[in-house]
Design brief:
alpha/beta, Peroxisomal Thiolase, Chain A, domain 1, five-stranded mixed β-sheet, four-stranded mixed β-sheet, 11 helices, 13 strands, 33% helix, binds oxa(dethia)-CoA
Length: 332
């Protein structure tokens, strides 16, 4: 595919709510232990948005920070894409509310839903708008308030998820830098293993849920685990190859933060050292689409990313979906 312009990340931002819910707090809510949760998932605590606060407030904070870091003003944005499965409203979309909230008067705006792969899908779309000249600057935000769709009586899922938002401003970069390659995919035949109903529920979905649990997230954890174990390493390999990079030469891999055992599994399959796989899972839990951009912003803040570094972002999630992005880092 030929493109007019190379697209890259010009600035990152993130927001995590103040309130921490620890594994010990969860011991008082469901029959579980800090030891079980940490051993099986790697998680110690997650952030929870306070009652009455909006997901929009998290999205705006992350977006403003990304804009500030990129040096781009809100009125220079041509497009805003928000990835979320937990919007405050279905309409207006989160992206329209973000557009209003940050004063991006010249930006078109739409939301996408690719569950935990949402940020990767949004980057993929943003890149194409920039590559073909249809947009000069694109804001991508991933925001999730999973605590509001969690079944707090289900110990199999309530220990996993948290709230937060991450953002990136994309624009033109030098040829051969920025997003080098990306891939996105789905296996809709496995959609039933991770569900969050809206206005209709299938008989199959109703059958696996406990009585009355119609508005919460349901998951067959081991099926998702099996899918993730295979797709994470496959996607890293494929996108690296597409970008002309060797997996062993990558400076960083930023995987979706779902379970430490999934990350360790990918690490073994890819034969890369664990210290090149970024993780903040222990402190944030799984924030779905927001997990990768929150990690990226943390890494930027810690000064871990250098101009010229090669990165692969990789995710899987509900749908089932998967995707990966190979990047030559352009921020100083
Ligand atoms: O972002 C994408 C979304 N999701 C994921 O990535 C999740 C992928 N899956 C996973 O991370 C794992 O499958 C889980 C962490 C969800 C579960 O771990 P597991 O090792 O697959 O455990 P399991 O579901 O096979 O359960 C093993 C046992 C069961 O007890 P029995 O039936 O063997 O007596 C569960 O009832 O562990 C029990 N269990 C718990 N025990 C204490 C399940 N949850 C808990 C808990 N505390 N919180």
């Amino acid at each position: 595919m030929s493109s007019l312009y190379a697209a890259g990340i010009l600035g990152t931002g993130s927001f995590l709510p103040e309130k921490r819910l620890t594994n010990h707090d969860l011991e008082k809510i469901v029959e579980t232990t800090d030891e079980w949760i940490h051993q099986r998932t790697g998680i110690r605590e997650r952030r929870i948005l306070e009652e009455g606060a909006s997901a929009l407030s998290m999205a705006k904070s992350a977006a403003k920070k990304a804009l500030e870091r990129s040096g781009i003003t809100a009125d220079a944005l041509d497009l805003i894409i928000v990835a979320t499965v937990t919007p405050d409203y279905l309409t207006p979309s989160m992206s329209c509310s973000v557009q209003a909230g940050i004063g991006a008067v010249n930006a078109a705006a739409f939301d996408i839903n690719a569950a935990c792969t949402g940020f990767i899908y949004a980057l993929n779309v943003a890149q194409q708008y920039i590559a073909n000249g249809a947009a000069r600057h694109v804001l991508v935000v991933a925001v999730e308030c999973l605590s509001r769709v969690t079944d707090w009586q289900d110990r199999k899922t309530c220990v996993l998820f948290g709230d937060g938002a991450g953002a990136a401003v994309l624009g033109r970069v030098e040829e051969g830098t920025g997003i080098l390659a990306s891939l996105v995919g789905a296996d809709g035949t496995q959609g039933g293993v991770l569900t969050l109903p809206a206005f209709h529920m299938t008989d199959a979905d109703r059958a696996v849920r406990s009585e009355g649990k119609t508005q919460v997230l349901w998951m067959d954890g081991s099926e998702v685990f099996a899918f993730a174990a295979r797709i994470m390493s496959d996607s890293v390999r494929k996108v690296s190859e597409k970008a002309g990079l060797l997996v062993e030469d990558l400076n960083w891999i930023f995987p979706h933060q779902a379970n430490m055992r999934i990350l360790q599994n990918a690490q073994k399959r890819l034969k890369v050292p664990m210290d090149r796989i970024y993780s903040n899972l222990e402190q944030t839990g799984n924030i779905s689409s927001a997990s990768i951009p929150v990690c990226l912003d943390e890494a930027v803040e810690k000064g871990l990313l250098k101009k010229g570094d090669t990165l692969v972002l990789v995710a899987f999630g509900g749908g089932l979906t998967y995707g990966a992005t190979a990047i030559r880092w352009t921020m100083d």
